[in-house]
Structures are given as C-alpha cells and as structure tokens.
Inverse folding.
C-alpha cells in the first residue's frame, strides 16, 4: 500500500520503520525536514498536500493547532485524493474531531480516528494499542497499517470521536494514577518507608498494570527523563476537562491533577516527564 506519514516526532520516528518493514511504500512529511530524512527506506515529501495523494495518510501531530495548520489551513485535505483514507492518530479535542469529520465529509475523504496507547519505546517494539473509530470499510482498508505498528486494534464504532474520548480518558487516568502514587509516597515517607519500598510492594501486588510500574519506577527513583513531556500531559488533562465541561460533567480529581501540573511548570519542570507532577505533593 502507498502510505504517507505526517509527523516525525518521537512516536512517528518509532512507528514508520515498521510500515517500511511490512512492505508498504512509505513517504513522510515533517516540518523539520531533517527528521524525515533520518528515516531509512522512505521518500521525503515537500508538502502535506503531497501526503494526501497516497492510498492512506497517517498523521500524528502534537495538538489542535498543529492539526489545523497542517491538515486544514494548508489545503491538504481539500485537495486530497478521494480514495485516500486519513488515519488521524493525534490526541486532540473532541470539538476538533467533530470539525474534522465534517470537513472530511465535504472533501469526500474517509476519516479514521486511531489514537494509540503507548510511549515511543512501546512504538519501537510495535506493541501499541490502537483505538479505532470511523467507517468500518475505511478501517478495514487501513487495518494492515494498524497491524504493522500495534499489537492490537480496539474497534470503537463509527463516530471518530469515540476513539478520542477513550484516549483522553485513558491519559487522564494515567495522570491520576501517578498523582495517587506521589501522594502515597508522601504519606509513607513521613513514616520512614521510602518511596522505593512502598512502590515496589504496590506495583507488584495491588497495582501491577504497566503504567503503574513505569511511573512508579520514576517516582521511586526520582528520575523523570522525558518520555512524554509535561506540557503535552497538561494538554491532555485539559482536553479531558474541556470534554467534561461540554457535557456538564465535573472531574474534581482531574482538576487537582491539572493544578499540580501547572505548579510543576511554574517550577521550571516543563522539560521533564509529565509524571514529575507527582512530586508536587511530596515537596510541600
């Protein structure tokens, strides 16, 4: 299949080689051309519009503004090949997903929303969990691409934003999990039990999920090398709160998580992994 990929950040750079190894004819576009040129076995494109001439285009961009600029404002979607399937893998607002769905209908281009659970190391191992929503026929057409980059695809219906609300909810829960571990460590340390001892027990008994073990390890060692930087994490918590507000829902724990993240950024920790926000309670 001729597939284009837009967005060669840490995740994109880890995913594209799997598409190449699976035998697809892969082209890439990235604002930073050097990042695209560093990937072997691909053709580097001059514009997003070129990417939308393929059989499928996979996009993984940082936020709403980037998606709007690259996909909509550039004219790439409006001038797309009508047989192209757009696989949108970004974590973006539900309002923008709805807008994109309408703009894709107007352009006659199929939209599949397919955000993923996993960090770059998971992407490098092709072990991502892919959340897929959109027209079933379009999903079936791009399933070989999803299989190349992920270990499992989770179908979530024909409304694209269903995949995005699951992604946003999942990221919110991860942030709440490491916040809880940070507070638990604060409690245990006040009684002489180290964070390392506490979290070694908890992440091997009650809370054995990979996210608990990964972020528990960060908290235990006070090491927050960026896998997912704090401003991106704050963006995702804000997406959850905005989605809740649109439905009149209240998320008090997410509100506290956001406050912790904002304080961590105010302390100059914006280049650390988002779980560094778990230290805020421990240092008060």
């Amino acid at each position: 299949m001729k597939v284009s990929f837009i967005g060669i950040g840490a995740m994109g750079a880890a995913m594209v080689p799997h598409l190449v190894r699976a035998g697809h004819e892969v082209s890439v576009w990235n604002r930073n051309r050097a990042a695209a040129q560093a990937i072997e076995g691909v053709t580097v494109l001059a514009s997003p519009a070129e990417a939308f001439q393929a059989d499928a285009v996979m996009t993984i961009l940082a936020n709403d503004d980037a998606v709007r600029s690259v996909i909509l404002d550039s004219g790439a979607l409006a001038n797309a090949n009508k047989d192209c399937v757009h696989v949108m893998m970004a974590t973006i607002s539900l309002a923008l997903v709805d807008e994109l769905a309408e703009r894709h209908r107007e352009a006659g281009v199929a939209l599949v929303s397919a955000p993923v659970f996993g960090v770059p190391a998971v992407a490098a191992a092709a072990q991502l969990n892919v959340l897929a929503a959109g027209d079933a026929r379009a999903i079936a057409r791009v399933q070989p691409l999803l299989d190349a980059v992920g270990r499992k695809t989770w179908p979530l219906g024909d409304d694209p934003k269903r995949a995005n609300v699951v992604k946003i909810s999942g990221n919110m829960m991860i942030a709440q999990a490491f916040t809880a571990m940070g507070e638990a460590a604060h409690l245990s340390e006040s009684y002489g039990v180290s964070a390392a001892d506490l979290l070694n027990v908890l992440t091997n008994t009650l809370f054995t999920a990979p996210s608990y073990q990964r972020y528990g390890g960060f908290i235990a060692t006070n090491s927050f090398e960026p896998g997912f930087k704090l401003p991106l994490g704050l963006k995702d918590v804000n997406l959850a709160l905005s989605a809740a507000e649109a439905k009149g829902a209240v998320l008090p724990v997410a509100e506290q998580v956001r406050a912790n993240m904002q304080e961590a950024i105010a302390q100059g920790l914006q280049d650390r992994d988002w779980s560094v926000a778990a230290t805020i309670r421990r240092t008060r």
